[in-house]
Design brief:
The complex is a heterodimer of chains A (472) and B (407). Chain A has twelve helices and 22 strands. Chain A is an alpha/beta fold and 472 residues long. Chain A folds into three domains: 2-150 and 275-346, FAD/NAD(P)-binding domain (3-Layer(bba) Sandwich); 163-272, FAD/NAD(P)-binding domain (3-Layer(bba) Sandwich); 356-460, 2-Layer Sandwich (Enolase-like, domain 1), CATH 3.30.390. In chain A, the strands form five sheets. In chain A, strands 1, 2, 3, 4, 5, 6 and 17 form a seven-stranded mixed β-sheet that branches. In chain A, helix 6 links the parallel strand 10 (201-205) and strand 11. The model of chain A has no long low-confidence stretch (mean pLDDT 95). Chain B has 407 residues and is α+β, with helices and mostly antiparallel strands. Chain B folds into three domains: 2-104, RNA polymerase II/Efflux pump adaptor protein, barrel-sandwich hybrid domain (OB fold (Dihydrolipoamide Acetyltransferase, E2P)); 117-182, no CATH class; 202-405, Chloramphenicol acetyltransferase-like domain (Chloramphenicol Acetyltransferase, 2-Layer Sandwich), CATH 3.30.559. Helices cover 30% and strands 25% of the residues of chain B. Chain B is built from ten helices and 19 strands. In chain B, strands 9, 12, 15, 16, 17, 18 and 19 form a seven-stranded mixed β-sheet that branches. In chain B, a hairpin with a 3-residue loop joins strand 4 and strand 5. In chain B, helix 7 (237-250) packs across helix 8 (294-309) and helix 7 (237-250) crosses helix 9 (383-398). The longest helix of chain B is centred in the middle third of the chain and has 18 residues, at 213-230. Chain B is elongated and about 85 Å long. Classes of the chains: A alpha/beta (472), B alpha+beta (407). The interface between A and B is medium-sized, with 17 and 21 residues.
């Protein structure tokens, strides 16, 4: 009899399992077997998401730097070339290092690792089947952390030859000359950036007429301009109507503002989002239902409708982000152990790991206006940051939004160098209920790009030193 | 050697509590099982006692702070801390010290929390005392918003000092003062529940009156014997509880409750009896009243009243309940409309007993009369059932022998 069975070993699952075991609960973590009968621990994040994409983003960024910017510094190199197979090998090595790291962590924390396909019979019974046998495991609690998978669209069926999803886009054997990307969301922008830097002519087709609607609108506008400048040809309001793949390439038909057009690409990436993954998870007698979008309904504590069954990560509502998933895993493990932990859903940061990065936490101006909250803002452009100029990374800005009366920070938005790390400082401040003045009164090292956050916070109360303050 | 002092483990229904009072302060020497602190929850005041003889070495959660179930609130050491004025050398000094402690117990010094820079600045600028402002940040830290709100709406929490409102500032008339004190948790829980019931049920009240002469006669005749036999006074409540139980058995729907779209019929009669305390009204529950005798009921009520007045009622003693009796009569109320105790379906209101002329068998006679009120949730109960239920209670009280015969 286990205290906790975690289904899935991604950032939600393995973290939940480790914390549960740390709290003295007898814990198992189930991961399905893959082709070589070895489980792929670490989920989407480690295997086919965050980590491999960051490996390629970094490699491609270095290449683009050598190609385009070394000469700015007076560094002369002969034209750099790319060895894609070595780039992929480096990526794969990082992935295998981290996934075996997860196995080690589970072992060190005395979590039983079970390989097989899990099926929930009821809140106390989980059936695990693999090639060898079927086993029924007894447990007091079940944590579902089965994650998500790419959404496929019927007009552009993934064939893993010329039409691929985000997984296939991390595995190209050579740089496609022309690359189409359906979807201008976080995944489309990151993968588009990778191959664009490596030489692909990239065209992004986005069905909506709003670009990055979840980000602050000033940031979306600047990001749109910058990425088009970088060579990502982002087309909004383009509904793909057909994609036909032949031996060499893909013909994509789309409707832009009512006009039918056609483009031919060597490769096409479908990155229109992800959907929760619960295939074969529930026995026919298990009454746990999923909503019309496939999510498992849960409350703020990640409790499902059935007592002692919990669900965390991409398989439940909220942004599909590894750090959100992990924190939910921690919360559930703690709550099972009887600790009253609550998650601060308003403070989940979002990041797009392009170059420059895009990141934000809290609310943006539109959300606050819609909610009728009175606020004040302060912005600071990296073009006025000494460090950013010295590094040659002076695109973008940091914006701090605070409550008009109490000065409490309501949002931090950044586009520029190390935006993710700058916003993270805002997350810490907001966790403690900080005001813009608090950040303004805090010492920041000079010269750092983080100073842009300091100045933006000062600008909220018209006290910025290194830019003019617009008296409102 | 230091031990952790934790708040008690709260039941599922209690999310958190507030440190109401540190009975002992930092450095105080306490005997085993002596009360160190009191924690107020939505339902009761819980006591935290010393695990063994020792010294409260560090208070981690000052009074007024919210604490979770089994959360660390203080550190406790077995050794006497090297503080000559606090550590008793012998029994006699210990006694003296304890008296001094009692006098000074409201001067608890909170351990300093590190505040953010804007908060420190504002505290200085406006010459504010951080202890006067409640922190909403992590672990009760003050945020700038707390200070801005405090400055926008000044509130002095000292109960003896009244605050002049902006209106009275201009008139400068001392008798037009206002006093603001934060609601206690019990008060705000009561406020929320009553409002919720008003908004979420279809509540209305039916009235009747009861001639209590037969009950009174019985009390006069057997009161002394009853007390001698059972060690408890024969009051009115015993009769009312038993009459209610009989009526509930006849009308099970009055004993039922609504849960979502279901009606839950309870196969037992757990009767809540509202007891007034200086902290507010609490409703301990007499379990399985259907199987009790009048003496048992009287004993439980006496026991509950004692506990309630001393704040010692446990949460489990107040949970559940399928029907409630509220006695406004003890304060002299002639007629009132009680509010339901959700999710219960009905509540009986007792009132003051008055000698009134009534017509019985064509004669005007003076009888000890009491108005009865039954507030009920019209979603579940029709008027016919509610009225008949109240009449059933009236009938039994006017012919108490029916209680004996289960009529």
């Amino acid at each position: 009899m286990f205290d906790v069975i975690v289904i899935g070993s991604g950032p939600a699952g393995y973290v939940a399992a480790i914390r549960a075991s740390q709290l003295g609960l007898k814990t198992a973590c189930i991961e399905k077997s893959s082709s070589n009968n070895k489980p792929k621990l670490g989920g989407t994040c480690l295997n086919i998401g965050c980590i491999p994409s960051k490996a390629l983003l970094d490699s491609s960024h270095r290449y683009a730097d050598a190609l385009n910017h070394f000469s700015d510094h007076g560094i002369k190199v002969s034209k750099p070339s790319i060895d894609i197979s070595q780039m992929m090998e480096r990526k794969n090595k990082i992935v295998s290092q981290l996934t075996s790291g997860v196995a080690g962590l589970l072992k060190a924390n005395k979590v039983s690792q079970i390989i097989g396909n899990a099926k929930i019979i009821d809140s106390n019974n989980v059936e695990v089947s693999n090639e060898d046998n079927i086993e029924l495991l007894k447990t007091k609690n079940i944590i579902i952390a089965t994650g998500s998978m790419p959404i496929d669209i019927p007009v552009a069926k993934v064939d893993n030859k010329n039409i691929v999803d985000s997984t296939g886009a991390l595995e190209f054997k050579k740089v496609p000359k022309t690359l189409g990307v359906i979807g201008a969301g976080i995944i489309g922008l990151e993968l588009g950036s990778v191959w664009s830097r490596l030489g692909s002519k990239v065209t992004i087709l986005e069905a909506m007429d709003d670009f990055l609607p979840m980000a602050d609108s000033k940031i979306s506008d600047d990001v749109f301009k910058e990425f088009n400048k970088q060579g990502l040809n982002i087309n909004l309001n383009c509904k793909v109507t057909a994609a036909k793949s032949n031996k060499e390439n893909v013909t994509v038909n789309f409707n832009k503002n009512g006009n039918q057009s056609e483009l031919i690409f060597d490769k096409l990436i479908v990155a229109v989002g992800r959907k929760p993954y619960t295939n074969n998870l529930f026995d026919k007698n298990c009454n746990l239902s999923i909503d019309q979008n496939g999510f498992i309904p849960v409350n703020d504590f990640c409790e499902t409708q059935i007592k002692n069954i919990w669900a965390v990560g991409d398989v439940v509502r909220g942004p599909m982000l590894a750090h959100k998933a992990s924190e939910e895993g921690i919360m559930v493990a703690e709550r099972i152990a009887g600790n009253h932990i609550k998650m601060e859903y308003d403070l989940v940061p979002s990041v797009i790991y392009t170059h420059p990065e895009v990141a934000w936490v809290g609310q943006n101006e539109k959300e606050l206006s819609d909610a009728g909250v009175e606020f004040k803002t302060g912005s600071f452009p990296f073009a006025a940051s000494g460090r950013a100029l010295a590094t040659g990374e002076s695109t973008g800005f940091v914006k701090v939004i605070a409550d008009k009366r109490t000065d409490t920070i309501l949002g931090v938005h950044a586009f520029g160098p190390s935006a993710a790390d700058i916003v993270q400082q805002g997350v810490v401040a907001m966790e403690f209920g900080a005001s813009a003045e608090d950040l303004g009164l805090t010492i920041f090292s000079h010269p750092t790009v983080s100073e842009a956050l300091h100045e933006a916070a000062l600008a909220v109360n018209e006290q910025a030193i290194h830019i003019g303050n617009n008296k409102k | 050697m230091s031990t952790e002092i934790k708040s008690p483990t709260f039941p599922e229904s209690v999310a958190d509590g507030t440190i109401a009072n540190w009975v002992k302060k930092e450095g105080d020497y306490v005997k085993q099982d002596e009360v160190i602190a009191e924690i107020e929850t939505d339902k009761v005041v819980l006591e935290v006692v010393a695990p063994f003889d020792g010294v409260v070495s560090k208070v981690l959660k000052p009074a007024g702070e919210t604490v979770l179930s089994a959360e660390l609130i203080a550190e406790f050491t077995k050794e006497k801390i090297d503080q000559p004025s606090k550590a008793p050398d012998n029994e006699a000094i210990g006694e003296v010290e304890k008296e001094e402690v009692a006098e000074n117990s409201n001067e608890i010094k909170e351990p300093p929390l590190k505040h953010g820079p804007a908060v420190k600045k504002l505290l200085k600028e406006h010459d504010l005392n951080e202890d006067d402002i409640k922190g909403s940040g992590k672990n009760g830290r003050l945020t700038k918003a707390d200070l801005v709100n405090h400055l926008d709406a000044p509130v002095i929490e000292d109960e003896h000092k009244s605050v002049s409102s902006s209106a009275s500032l201009s008139s400068s008339s001392p008798e037009r003062s206002e006093e603001r004190v934060p609601m206690s948790r019990l008060r705000s829980t009561i406020a929320n529940r009553l409002l919720t019931v008003k908004q979420e049920t279809a509540m209305l009240t039916t009235f009747n009156e009861v001639d209590l002469k037969p009950v009174k006669d019985m009390r006069v005749k057997y009161g002394d014997d009853f007390q001698a036999e059972h060690g408890v006074k024969l009051g009115f409540m015993g009769f009312f509880v038993l009459a209610a139980v009989q009526a509930l058995k006849k009308f099970p729907v009055v004993n039922a409750s609504i849960d979502g779209s279901d009606i839950v019929y309870h196969g037992y009669q757990d009767i809540g009896v509202a007891v007034s305390t200086d902290r507010g009204l609490v409703v301990p529950v007499i379990r399985d009243a259907g199987s009790l005798r009048i003496a048992d009921v009287e004993k439980s009520i006496l026991d509950f009243s004692d506990k309630a007045r001393h704040g010692k009622l446990s949460i489990s003693e107040m949970q559940g309940g399928t029907f409630t009796i509220s006695n406004g009569g003890v304060f002299g109320s002639l007629l009132s409309t009680p509010i339901l105790n959700a999710p219960q379906t009905a509540i009986l209101g007792m009132h003051t007993i008055q000698d009134r002329p009534v017509a019985i068998d064509g004669e005007i006679v003076i009888r000890p009369m009491m108005y009865l009120a039954l507030s009920y949730d019209h979603r579940l109960l029709d008027g016919k059932e509610a009225v008949s239920f109240l009449i059933a209670i009236k009938d039994q009280l006017e012919s108490p022998e029916k209680l004996l015969l289960n009529l």
